[in-house]
Predict the 3D structure of the following.
Amino acid sequence: MYKLLIVDDEEEVRLGIIRKTRWEDYDFILIGEATNGREALEIIEKEMPDVIITDISMPVMDGLQLTEEVKIQYPIIKIVILTGFEDFSFAQRAIKFGVEDYLSKPIHPEELNELLEKLKVKLDDEIKEKEDIYKLQKHYDDSLPILKDSFLTSLMHESFSSEEINHQINLHKLNLTGTAFAVSLSKIDGNTLMKNQQPKMTFELLNVAILHIANDIVKTRKIGEVFFYDNLLVIIFSIDCKDKDIVRNRLIKLLEEINQQVKHFLKITVTTGLGYIKSSVTHLPSSFQSAKTAFEYRLLLGGNKVIFIDDVEPKHNKSLTLDPEKESRLLNVIKFGSEHDVREMVKALLNYVGSGNITAKECQLYFLQISSFLIIQAEIFQIDSSVLFKEVSELFTKIISFATMEQVRNWFTNICLELRVEFTRKRATSTQKLVNKAKDYIEKNFEDSELTIQKLADAFFISPSYLSMIFKKELETTFLQYLISVRLEKSKELLENPENTISEVAQKVGYPDISYFSYFFKKNVGVSPREYKNSFIKGGS
């Protein structure tokens, strides 16, 4: 069944539409009604309808504003506009925004049924196209050339001269000629794979379907290349823009669009890690490594998200002499592993000492490399190294004093466990600071009628999806619900002052339309603003 939402400020119109047809005959289920665009967005965020039927002229947020906002945030939702004769010019503008169709008032049952039938066919065809096993198999067979994917894979790991890269770009006609570059890595969330209700869709075919969806979006916009590597969907982005904030927002919105389509059409979710934004295609290996690090944060943040490296870790350019693979494994275990994982990792690192003919001096230098790596990581994350090492200046003296490998293992294990505790504490502190800043910003700007989660995220230079996740995890509510609670409390305070008129209170809490403010207040408090105000006037007299 497809989900449908009706938006109109006139109750008679909404009820008229609801009663004019048998929705289930066309595979539709009515999931809600809204009286204006802003109320509709709250329902859309929770229910994610397939179709919206909306009036044009409404208070607070009209149908055109709603259409524009939905097409930015949820481009796969179909929108149908209701229009009277006087609204016809507005309906023509709405068509330019990408609405599916429009219905003229008064609405006739035959026209509504015909429209629902047309929408059902279109939705069925879209899902069939994404699920068609034979098309996917053919697309998989046609997913060549091998040389192109081989070069793109090498670009993630190896250094090439600019001349060689330009030669390969021209040879394969690659979309890699911009001024800003970044790598993203995506993978199916294991928990949703088990729930996938499409038994004919093997893991390999699901990957092909995801590749097909991502390719459609990226290729249409001509902003990069898409391929699979080691069961990961890799996108190399290339955008002709030098403003990193603009590039960041554009990439995150595009990746969220891919995730939405995957969830909608394939009934599974994916997690995506987005690496640092670089100014040259020759720096892609660095972006690739940071995308892997961002992706690893799914263990802490959960799946079905786009995780941008700048949102979760500070950028740094430290180069270390310890083997990069061992560095990465050790750091990931300290950040994300259990105490048992840390002990096993230290044991594995020290097992290398006994794997060949190694001199005592080589052992000591190896221990010094591990110690240096831990000190540098502590400095990067602003952790006092004296918490880990009593005297850094006497580090080498300490290392050469060890008599047995058991002493070395216990020493490193205690240091790594202490660093793990400090990482956890710093991460919690950083998140709490962000929450406090966001609450403070809302406290100072709740009267702004245009305050959105995008505007709040831009103020702190982070992505809206990450900020939304922080609100749900730390405050156990959504941004919108928190903003509403603040505005309600401020409304009550202002109404209790007899010198404030209801119109003035509405303006001061971000609702310039007094009719909507009255509706909103009564819906949440149970009485109208006037009744609430009068109760205090009577109580004080």
Summary: DSSP finds 25 helices and ten strands in the chain. The longest strand covers residues 180-188. The radius of gyration is 28 Å. Strands lie at 2-7, 28-34, 51-55, 78-83, 101-104, 180-188, 224-229, 232-239, 270-274, 306-308.
